[in-house]
C-alpha cells in the first residue's frame, strides 16, 4: 500500500533522520565527508525543519510504502526565480526516496502529487535545483517535462559549492 500524508511537528525527528540519510545517499559524493556532515547537521536539524514547517508557503509530505516511510517532499509556493517571468511559481525544494526503493516508481507518484499541489494553489510553473552530476534525477525531471534553464552554485559549506541546474516546467 502507498500513502502520502502531511508531515506534522510530531514527525520532525523522523523527518530529520530521513532527510539526512537520503541526502547523503544522493549527494554524499559531491563534497568531502566533513562538508556534507556540516551541511546536513544544520540544514536537516529539527530546529531548522520546524521553522520551515511553520512557514505557510511550505508543504511537507511523507511517502509510505508497505507501511514504512520511504520518502518525503517539500514544495514551496509563491517562490520566484529571477529569470522566470511567469508568476506565481512553486519550488520543488526536496523530493527524496530511500535508495532501497528507487526502483518502485515511488518518486513519480510523489512528483505528480506535488504538481497537483502547485496547480491547486494556482502556481503557473514549478522549478527546482538539481546537482549536475545527478544523472538519474535529471533524466527523471526531463521525462516529466522539465527543462534546464540555468546553472547556479549550491552552497554546501563555507568552502564548497556544487554546480546545480535550475530546471523548470510551466503549468
User: Number of folding domains?
Assistant: 1
Low-pLDDT ranges? none
In N-to-C order, the SSE pattern is: EHHHEEEHEHEE
Query: Approximately what portion of the residues adopt beta-strand conformation?
Result: 35-45%
Quickly count the helices: 5
Give the overall average pLDDT.
95
Q: What is the global morphology?
A: globular
Describe the sheet with the most strands: 7 strands, mixed
Overall helicity: 25-40%
Helices and strands in order:
Layout: E1 2-6, H1 12-27, H2 33-43, H3 46-54, E2 58-65, E3 68-76, E4 89-97, H4 106-120, E5 125-131, H5 135-143, E6 147-157, E7 160-170
Parallel strand pairs: 4-5
Antiparallel strand pairs: 1-2, 2-3, 3-4, 5-7, 6-7
Write a compact overview of the structure shown.
The protein has 171 residues and is of the alpha+beta class. The protein contains 5 helices and 7 strands, in the order E-H-H-H-E-E-E-H-E-H-E-E.
Task: Output the keywords.
Aminopeptidase, 35% strand, alpha+beta, 171 residues, globular, 7-stranded mixed beta sheet
Structural features, described:
The radius of gyration is 15 Å and the shape is globular. Strands 1-2-3-4-5-7-6 form a seven-stranded mixed sheet, with helices on both faces. With 171 residues, it is α+β, with helices and mostly antiparallel strands. The chain has one domain (2-170): Gcn5-related N-acetyltransferase (GNAT) (Aminopeptidase, 3-Layer(aba) Sandwich), CATH 3.40.630. It is built from five helices and seven strands.
